[in-house]
Design a protein that fits this description.
By secondary structure, the protein is an all-alpha fold. The protein has helices at residues 2-12, 18-24, 30-43, 49-55, 61-74, 80-105.
Length: 106
Amino acid sequence: RRVAVANVLGELADTASFKPLLNALKDSEPRVRTAAAGGLGKLGNKQAAAELIALLKDRDRYVRAAAVAALGSLGDAVAVEPLLALAGYALAIRFTFSIARGRALR
């Protein structure tokens, strides 16, 4: 039910949805956090940037992906550095994995 509410709030794209969506980012259910991040991205309110940046460290990959997409929608320069750091980390992991896989195949 909380997921549905977060989805509806995001679809409304009403400024009154901002505070409830921001609060939903702290929900224990990853699907609620994912929906809330998506809704905040649709609202485009740059005041959500700090909370969305914090979600880049969420345990759930779908929450992190929703945060990345929402930050992209906001277009706030404050998100550039954290997004680059995240991309760099992911690239480093892929690179290390490809080296390890190459060694295992020898």
